[in-house]
Amino acid sequence: MGMTTYSFADVSAVVSHPSLGQYVANGAGLGSIRVTMATENTKHDVAADGSVMVTKTIGKNGTIAFEIQQTSGFDQWLRNSYNYLYTADTSQWAQMSIVIRSPIMGDLITATGCAFKIRPERPYEADGQKVTWEIMAANIDEFVA
């Protein structure tokens, strides 16, 4: 049998904005990254006689969620970015881009037209917690080597 290996330590994400610079997230304080597409690319319409019309819908929009430690530098950068963009000119709101790389898996994901979905809950508990930042993307492309 063959063997494969995976390590989240090999995954990196770069979040960029023209007015804010970039943050490279590659492990420190990062718990998970989840890429979720929003548009269903196939839809079915079923007629009374049972015939099915298949519709192909083009859409590459979705959400990228970063689950991170609430004390991490990445959380601080995202909080500062959110606060800046919330009060900045509207033209800046969706100028973020995200690049996620997983060299071992051969994955490269690029997302453009990115904007914060909502400011995450801010937990205050006896033990440190994680927060989840959801960023909506107008276009997500995935390349597999």
From TrEMBL:
Superkingdom, natural source: Bacteria
Stored InterPro entries: Phage_KPP10_Orf10 (IPR021695)
Xref: Pfam families: Phage_Tube_PhiTE
Protein name: DUF3277 family protein
Organism field: Alicyclobacillus macrosporangiidus
